[in-house]
Amino acid sequence: MASPQEQASVSDVVRFQSQQMTQLLAAINGLVTLQTAATLAPPTPPPVPTPSPMAPPFRAFSPDVERWPEYIVQLEAHFVAYNIPGTEWLAFFIANAGVVLYRVLVKLFPTTRPETKTYDEVIDILNSYFRDSVNVVHARYKFFCLRRGPTQSNKSWLAHLQGLSSDCDFNFSFGRSYADIMIRDTIAQNVADHRIREQILRFKNTSLQEVVNLLDTQDTLDMATSTFDVTPGVYC
To answer: Is residue 168 part of a domain?
Structure first.
């Protein structure tokens, strides 16, 4: 027969096991309740995307102040900057191009409305139209006659020459850009500083970059000289 101490110890074990079983059952009931609630709850709707802000308008094309290639490059950069979908490019272009350019489109599509075409079709025909409307002889005359202005830097003169060359149809290729060859030769012919001309002519088949380096060096020297001339003297 068990002693009173042994009976008390057995009672403690039974009581502890009963408490553990009660806690386990309570935890299981809690999980079942959560699963049931999740099953009965309506599904969470997907997040609604925030609409992108409306793209601002783009300026109308003005042939008196800009060239067509410049305009179309900036317009397409506007499309990218404001995430305008490709399906909306044509409508956006027609709405913003202005009446002058729209009249050109109407003439180029005499039997259909420009809005019925694709964006690529409209831009391709405009590219051809403006390319064919350039007077190449006149453009080359302006190119070859351009001299550096009395207050113009060599870098500014070079940029002006590069801009004029885009209308001169210098599209031949001899292992290097034909436009670069023409710019190099025009600089050699029209540069005001005879020392630069002599250096260009002394080199055999020099590149445009080598000529640009000479111009940059001369600009630096001119700037240093002008600074020296205007700096007041220091007297002791």
So the answer is: yes
> Mean pLDDT over residues 56-81, rounded?
90
| pLDDT tens-digit map of 23-32 | 766 767 766 6
Residue 3 in domain: no
* Residue 60 neighbours by CB under 8 Å, 6+ apart: 96, 97, 98, 99, 100, 101
Are 79 and 58 in contact by the 8 Å Cβ rule? The answer is: no
Beta bridge partners of 173: 177
- Crossing angle for the helix pair 119-132 and 68-81, to the nearest 10 degrees: 160
Q: How far is it, in rounded angstroms, from Cα 148 to Cα 77?
A: 32
Considering the chain, what is the average pLDDT of its residues?
A: 78
Nearest alpha-carbon partner for 190 in 143, 151, 233: 143
Parent domain of 122: 68-132
Please tell me the total number of residues recorded for the chain in this structure: 236
- Does residue 235 form part of some domain? no
